[in-house]
């Protein structure tokens, strides 16, 4: 699929990332369909999109007419997964089998040109593509949180990804006003590989009782980081961050330096998923 031919984009998963990705696609003029199995999540995504666009108007970055055009470009669906689009971007839970099954199902109802992009944080694209009928059309398109603000996008080619597909996704990222960086396929790619230790070591300090979450966050901020590890995990989603660490631990053959934390696992089990659930390492209620 050539970049100019892209007219429709389907986003699968309307959570923290899917909502923001759908918003910017609609703002860039694409007919965008946002799908989620959870209708409550879809309603929340719609409300967040309107709130974000209104904020854009307040800040003088957007006109009322542009907001209306973006809203008209965006549709929400929770019906059966049968979207037919030029580009599909999946942003569902960080689990290999879920991502593969979505791409497989969608391959059957899409054109021979449709590109299947994954927003995975850590799962190698080669592994996702391995179970798909057309691995050459599977590519990584890794946005950062919040997707409507952060400029960086890692574009990841798996072993079978065609260079044309990677180039088309790079061009699409530019059209979305992002700064794409081409990355090779490795667990966690570039940013998450380096950043993993920010979270893992922060959690170790907490487990060892060296300092509390707030103290560690304050210190990291004072040393120049925009956010400390615990605030950032709450923003990302404690559950998503835990899944990413678990996936990297496994992918690096259980190297202890990537071992997930029990404190974090307990938060996930308790449903303390961060800002999106109202409670994580901090309380947002
Ligand atoms: P989230 O938990 O906020 O949202 C995931 C959504 O997927 C949920 O709304 C859920 O209902 C939906 N879902 C689950 N199974 C589904 C299925 N079979 N079909 C359709 N929808 C389904 O997760 P989040 O944080 O948005 O993460 C999504 C992906 O983006 C993950 O792969 C994650 O690693 C990646 N990512 C997350 C970032 C973050 O900061 N949260 C940053 C960059 C990438």
TrEMBL record:
Domain 3-hydroxyacyl-CoA dehydrogenase NAD binding: 8-185
Keywords: NAD, Oxidoreductase
GO function term, MF aspect, one: NAD+ binding
InterPro entries for the chain: 3-OHacyl-CoA_DH, 3-OHacyl-CoA_DH_NAD-bd, 3HC_DH_C, 6-PGluconate_DH-like_C_sf, 6PGD_dom2, NAD(P)-bd_dom_sf
Domain spans labelled 3-hydroxyacyl-CoA dehydrogenase C-terminal: 188-284
Any Gene Ontology biological process: fatty acid beta-oxidation
Domain of life of the source: Bacteria
Segments forming a coiled coil: none
Keyword Oxidoreductase tagged: yes
Protein species of origin: Pontibacter virosus
Stored SUPFAM superfamilies: 6-phosphogluconate dehydrogenase C-terminal domain-like, NAD(P)-binding Rossmann-fold domains
Positions bound to NAD(+): 13-18, 36, 94, 99, 121, 145, 276
Name recorded for this polypeptide: 3-hydroxybutyryl-CoA dehydrogenase
Site (Important for catalytic activity): 142
Any one Pfam family match given in the protein's UniProt record, by short name: 3HCDH_N
């Amino acid at each position: 699929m050539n970049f100019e031919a892209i007219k429709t984009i389907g986003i699968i998963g309307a959570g923290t990332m899917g909502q923001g990705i759908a918003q910017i696609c609609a703002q860039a003029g694409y007919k965008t369909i946002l799908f989620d199995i959870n209708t409550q999540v879809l309603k929340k995504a719609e409300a967040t999109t309107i709130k974000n666009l209104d904020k854009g108007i307040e800040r003088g970055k957007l006109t009322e007419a542009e907001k209306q055009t973006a809203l008209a470009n965006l549709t929400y669906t929770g019906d059966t997964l049968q979207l037919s689009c030029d580009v599909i971007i999946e942003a569902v839970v960080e689990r290999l089998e879920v991502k593969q099954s979505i791409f497989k199902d969608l391959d059957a109802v899409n054109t021979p040109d449709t590109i299947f992009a994954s927003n995975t944080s850590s799962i190698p694209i080669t592994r996702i593509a391995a179970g798909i009928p057309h691995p050459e059309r599977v590519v990584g398109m890794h946005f950062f949180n919040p997707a409507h603000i952060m400029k960086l996008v890692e574009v990841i080619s798996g072993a079978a990804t065609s260079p044309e597909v990677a180039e088309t996704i790079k061009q699409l990222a530019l059209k979305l006003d992002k700064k794409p960086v081409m990355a090779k396929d490795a667990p966690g790619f570039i940013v998450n590989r380096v950043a993993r230790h920010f979270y893992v070591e922060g959690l170790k300090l907490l487990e060892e009782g060296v300092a509390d979450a707030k103290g560690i966050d304050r210190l990291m901020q004072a040393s120049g980081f925009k956010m400390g590890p615990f605030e950032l995990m709450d923003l990302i989603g404690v559950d998503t961050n835990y899944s990413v660490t678990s996936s990297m631990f496994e992918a690096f053959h259980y190297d202890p330096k990537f071992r997930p934390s029990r404190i974090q696992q307990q938060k996930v089990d308790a449903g303390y998923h961060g800002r999106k659930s109202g409670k994580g390492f901090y309380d947002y209620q």
